[in-house]
Design brief:
single chain; 662 residues; TIM Barrel; Jelly Rolls; GH; glycoprotein
C-alpha cells in the first residue's frame, strides 16, 4: 500500500512538473507574412527627427560656438565673463548700450588700458566649460574698433588649473569696426577649460562678438555646427526634420515667441532672446540659457538638405503657450503672422527674382529648399486655435495649395480637447494632425494597435512627439542618461510597429526631444546625450535608426490567428516590402523578460537562402548607455539560414529586424 502511495505521489509530482514544463515551453507564436500582397505605400518621410532648443540643444550644443554671451547681450551683460588684471595692469571695462542705433545687437564693451604694464584678461567660462581636443585647430574671432592709443589682443585656452593649452599671437587693433580672425591649435585635450582674451598696450578699444569655433565643424562650414552631433543626425537617415520646436515656437508670451525672420542673415545682427526653458522648471532653472540664433532658419534648411530630410518648419499662429500665459494676438491682428508663413514659403521655394527668394540666394543658396509642408502652431487647443487656424489655412491654401498644413491636436493623445480638434481638423481637411504622447511603458504597449481601426481619409497622422517615460521611482542610477533604458526603447518599438502597420494613416513620426547636455538638461529622456567633447546614442536612438534604415516601400499584411500581432504573448510585429532594394523586412518586438519563440511563415517567393538578423536587446530592463559607457546597448547583426517557415527565438526585452533578400 505504501509503495502504491509512493507511486501515486511520484506520478502527481511528474504531472506538476510536466505542466510546468508546458507553461515555460509554450508553443511558438505563429505569424504569417504575405510577402506577395503588398499593401499601403510607406511615405519616404515616415521616420524623422524633431529638433527643439531645449537641454542646451542649440547654443552649447549643435551650434558649435564655444563662447557664452559672446556679444554681451544677456540681461546681465557680463554673465559668463570675468575680469582679471595681472602684473600691474591698470584697466577698466565699460558695457555700452546703443539701442537707438542697433536694436538687434545694442551692446558692446569698451576696454581701456591706462598704462602699458601687465595684461588685462577677459575670461569666458563657455557652456559649462570650454572643451578642446589635442592637435585640433580652433578659430578665434573678435569684432573691434580702435578708439585711441595702441592696443593688442590675443587669445588663449586654459585648462581647469589655468594652464595654457593653446594660444594666438597678439594682433594690433587699428581703425574702425572690423573682424579679426586667428587660428591656433591646442596641445592637450581639455573638457572644462576657459577662454582668455588678453589685452596689452595702452589705449582704448571697443569689442563685440567674441567667438571661438572648432575648425572641424559639420561640412567644414565656418561658424557652423558641431560635427559629431550633426553626424549622429545624418546616421539616423531621417525622412524629415521638424524645427525649431516645440514650445520654443510659442514662447511663454508672444514677445518671446520664435520669429524666423530674426534668425537669418548676419549672425551679429540676430537678436538674442531668453530661452523659455531658462525658467520653465523651478527645479531645473538655467539662468544662462538664451537663444543667440546662430543656428537659425537658413541653417535649419541647410541641415535638412545635408542629411536628406524634408524640412518641416513650425510657425507661431498668434498664440503663446497656453500652459504659461495663454496670450493670443487678436483675430484682427493676425495678418502679420500669416504673412510670416507666406514669406517663409517664398524664402524656401521662391524664385531668386522674388524678395525672399533673392535673400536666400544672397545667403548662398540660389536653388529652392523644396519645402512641402508647414506647421501652424505647436500644442495649441480650443476654439481660439481653430479660429486662427482657419485664417491661416484660407490664406496658405489659396496661395500655396502644394504645401500641406500640419495642425495641432493639443498636448494629449486623448480626452475632450483631443477629440474636438481631431474631428474639427478632419472637417477642415488639414494635411496632417500632429499627435503627441509622452506616456509610461504600459501606454505604449497598449496603443500598438491604436491606429488599426482609425478613421481613414485624406487627413493623415503625424506622431510629432513621443517618448516612453519610465517612472523616476524605478531608476537605480542618478545619471541623466539613466531614463533612456532599453525597456523604454522596446516599448517605443512596440508602438512603432503599429505606426508602420498603419502607414496609410500614419505618415510621419518623430521621437522627442532630440538632444540633451548631461550637465544642463531640463527634460528627459532624450534621444542623444552629450557633453563638451563626447556624445552618446541611446537605445531609443538605435530603435529609431533601425526603423528608418529598414523602412521599406509598402506594408505587408501580417497576422496571427487572423489578427495583427500586437501584444499576443508580449510579441509585436510589422512587415514591409522594400521594392527599391528587393528586400523583405520583418520587425519583431519581444516586450517580455523571457525568451519567446516566433514561427514565421512567409507567403510568396524569397530567393535568398540566408537573411540578416539585427537585434537590440538587454538582459537588464533598466540598462542604458552613458557618456562613460556608450556601448552597453548596441545593435548586433548575424546571418541566419532562411526558409519559408522559420522558428526564431527572440531574446527577452528585444527589438529584432529580419532582412530577407527577395
Amino acid at each position: 500500500m505504501n509503495q502504491i502511495n509512493r507511486l501515486l505521489k511520484r506520478a502527481a509530482l511528474l504531472a506538476v512538473a510536466f505542466g510546468s514544463l508546458q507553461v515555460h515551453g509554450q508553443s511558438p507564436v505563429k505569424i504569417t507574412v504575405a510577402a506577395n500582397q503588398p499593401g499601403a505605400r510607406i511615405s519616404p518621410h515616415m521616420w524623422g527627427i524633431f529638433f527643439e532648443d531645449i537641454n542646451f540643444a542649440a547654443d552649447g550644443g549643435l551650434y558649435a560656438e564655444l563662447v557664452k554671451n559672446r556679444s554681451f547681450e544677456f540681461p546681465m551683460p557680463m554673465m559668463g565673463w570675468k575680469q582679471t588684471r595681472l602684473d600691474g595692469a591698470d584697466a577698466s571695462l565699460l558695457v555700452v548700450n546703443r539701442s537707438n542705433a542697433d536694436g538687434n545687437n545694442p551692446r558692446y564693451a569698451t576696454v581701456t588700458l591706462n598704462n602699458d604694464k601687465g595684461r588685462f584678461v577677459l575670461t569666458n567660462e563657455g557652456f559649462r566649460g570650454v572643451g578642446v581636443e589635442k592637435d585640433h585647430a580652433y578659430n578665434f574671432s573678435i569684432m573691434a574698433h580702435a578708439v585711441s592709443g595702441d592696443v593688442n589682443i590675443s587669445a588663449e585656452v586654459v585648462d581647469e588649473k589655468g594652464s595654457p593649452v593653446g594660444h594666438t599671437e597678439p594682433v594690433k587693433v587699428a581703425g574702425d569696426w572690423k573682424t579679426y580672425q586667428v587660428k591656433f591649435a591646442c596641445s592637450q585635450t581639455v573638457d572644462k577649460g576657459k577662454l582668455n582674451v588678453v589685452f596689452t598696450g595702452k589705449g582704448s578699444i571697443d569689442i563685440d562678438m567674441v567667438s571661438l569655433f572648432p575648425e572641424d565643424t559639420w561640412k567644414h562650414r565656418p561658424g557652423g555646427l558641431r560635427a559629431d552631433l550633426a553626424q549622429k543626425l545624418a546616421d539616423l537617415h531621417p525622412g524629415f526634420m521638424r524645427f525649431p520646436g516645440g514650445c520654443i515656437v510659442e514662447g511663454r508670451e508672444l514677445l518671446n515667441r520664435y520669429q524666423w525672420k530674426k534668425t537669418i542673415g548676419n549672425v551679429a545682427e540676430r537678436q538674442l532672446i531668453m530661452n523659455r526653458w531658462n525658467v520653465e522648471f523651478s527645479y531645473r532653472n538655467a539662468p544662462d540659457y538664451f537663444q543667440s540664433f546662430g543656428l537659425g532658419f537658413f541653417e535649419y534648411f541647410q541641415l535638412c538638405e545635408d542629411i536628406g530630410a524634408s524640412p518641416l518648419p513650425i510657425l507661431n499662429c498668434g498664440m503663446a503657450c497656453q500652459f504659461n500665459s495663454a496670450e493670443v494676438a487678436s483675430v484682427n491682428q493676425i495678418d502679420p503672422y500669416i504673412q510670416d508663413a507666406l514669406d517663409l514659403i517664398e524664402f524656401a521655394n521662391g524664385a531668386t527674382t522674388t524678395k525672399w527668394g533673392a535673400l536666400r540666394a544672397k545667403l548662398g543658396h540660389p536653388q529652392p529648399f523644396n519645402l512641402k509642408m508647414i506647421g501652424v502652431g505647436n500644442e495649441q487647443w480650443g476654439e481660439q486655435y481653430v479660429e486662427r487656424y482657419k485664417l491661416f489655412a484660407a490664406a496658405l491654401k489659396k496661395a500655396h495649395p502644394e504645401v500641406k498644413l500640419v495642425t495641432s491636436s493639443g498636448p494629449d493623445p486623448d480626452g475632450d480637447r483631443f477629440n474636438y480638434l481631431t474631428q474639427t481638423m478632419r472637417t477642415e481637411k488639414a494635411g496632417f494632425i500632429d499627435e503627441h504622447y509622452y506616456r509610461p511603458p504600459e501606454w505604449f504597449l497598449k496603443n500598438a494597435s491604436r491606429y488599426d481601426n482609425y478613421e481613414r481619409g485624406d487627413t493623415k497622422i503625424f506622431a510629432g512627439e513621443y517618448a516612453c517615460h519610465i517612472p523616476d521611482a524605478s531608476q537605480k542610477d542618478t545619471r541623466p542618461e539613466s531614463h533612456n533604458t532599453i525597456w523604454a526603447a522596446v516599448c517605443e518599438a512596440a508602438l512603432m510597429t503599429g505606426l508602420e502597420r498603419n502607414a496609410d494613416v500614419v505618415q510621419m513620426a518623430s521621437y522627442a526631444p532630440l538632444f540633451a547636455r548631461t550637465d544642463a538638461w531640463q527634460w528627459r529622456p532624450d534621444l542623444i546625450w552629450f557633453d563638451n567633447l563626447h556624445s552618446v546614442a541611446t537605445p531609443n536612438y538605435y530603435v529609431q535608426q533601425l526603423f528608418a534604415t529598414n523602412r521599406g516601400t509598402a506594408v505587408l499584411p501580417t497576422h496571427t490567428d487572423g489578427k495583427s500581432l500586437a501584444g499576443q504573448d508580449s510579441i509585436y510585429s510589422s512587415a514591409t516590402l522594400d521594392a527599391d532594394n528587393h528586400r523583405l523586412i520583418i520587425k519583431l518586438v519581444n516586450a517580455s523578460a523571457s525568451v519567446k519563440t516566433v514561427s514565421v511563415n512567409v507567403l510568396g517567393n524569397t530567393t535568398g537562402k540566408k537573411a540578416e538578423w539585427i537585434q537590440l536587446s538587454g538582459t537588464d530592463k533598466l540598462a542604458f548607455n552613458s557618456i562613460d559607457h556608450p556601448d552597453v546597448i548596441k545593435p548586433s547583426s548575424r546571418t541566419i539560414a532562411w526558409t519559408r517557415d522559420n522558428n526564431l527565438k527572440l531574446d527577452g526585452v528585444s527589438v529584432n529586424v529580419i532582412v530577407v533578400p527577395l
